[in-house]
Amino acid sequence: MTRASINGSAAQERGAVGNSEYAAGEIILFPGAADDLYRLKSGLIRLHAVDQGGYGVTLRYVKPGGYFGEEALTGQRRRYFAEAVTDSSASRVAVDRLSRQALQELAAYLAGGLEQMNRSLLRLAAKPLRARIAAELLELSDSALAGRTDSGESVVYLTHDDLAAAVGSVRETVTKVIGEMARSGALRAGYGKIVVLDQAQLAEIAGA
After folding, report:
1. How do strand 45-50 and strand 187-190 relate by DSSP bridges?
2. Are 100 and 144 part of one and the same domain?
3. Which range marks the domain in which residue 81 is found?
4. Which of 18, 136, 168, 206 suits a disulfide with 55, CB 3.0-4.6 Å?
5. Three-state SS for 197?
């Protein structure tokens, strides 16, 4: 069997019925009627809502192999935006074509996604900004936004504006907190990037 036919069989087992490419910053899904379920092939997707104060609230991130748009399974209206954080590609999934194994995989993923969303909302409601920022950087340190320095540290490529939007704050306040973390040795901030120097310290700040 050729590589192409193997890949085709795997795609059919997972119910893929079409692929789409998205540019960084592109909004893929809007609040409203839910029609399609998606499986991310590459990149990073952020699911976020806007609170009553007008601030963006990150609900969860979707990394390669993960699903989003799950409201299509029940017909519920979507209450969030799905945004491509990096250039991304995703497959549209026909649930009735999923194999038994793929359905089990989907159920396990959605259960984990719900837990992740609950943690995000708990942080937003009950934890200080410092903890929310640390948790966000840890979450992104193994995503498509991350890389490695020459000396091996994890580096997350995002601006203070982007980080503020993700944790429900404003850039000026986030910059102040980042400065405090840099002075403690947890990280190093640069233009459009944050280098994680002490992951254990960040985990302690995040309460992980």
Report:
1. unpaired
2. no
3. 13-126
4. 168
5. coil
Please identify, among 77, 100, 126, the residue that sits at the C-terminal boundary of a domain: 126
User: Looking at residue 125, what is its pLDDT?
Assistant: 59
Q: What is the DSSP string of 71-88?
A: GGGTTPPB-SEEEESSSE
Of 69, 100, 126, the position where a domain reaches its end is: 126
Tokens of 82: 């799905």
pLDDT along the chain (208 residues), means of 10: 40 64 94 88 91 74 90 86 95 83 82 70 70 89 90 92 86 94 94 93 85
CATH for 171: 1.10.10.10
Are both 31 and 95 inside the same structural domain?
yes
Work out the burial of residue 25: count CB atoms within 10 Å of its CB; fewer than 13 is exposed, 13-18 middle, 19 or more buried.
exposed
Q: Is the pTM of this model over 0.90?
A: no
- Taking the CB of residue 99, how many other CB atoms lie within 10 A of it? 13
Question: How many CB atoms within 10 Å of residue 159?
Answer: 14
- CA-based R_g, the chain, Å: 18
pLDDT for position 180:
95
Q: What is the DSSP letter of 145?
A: T
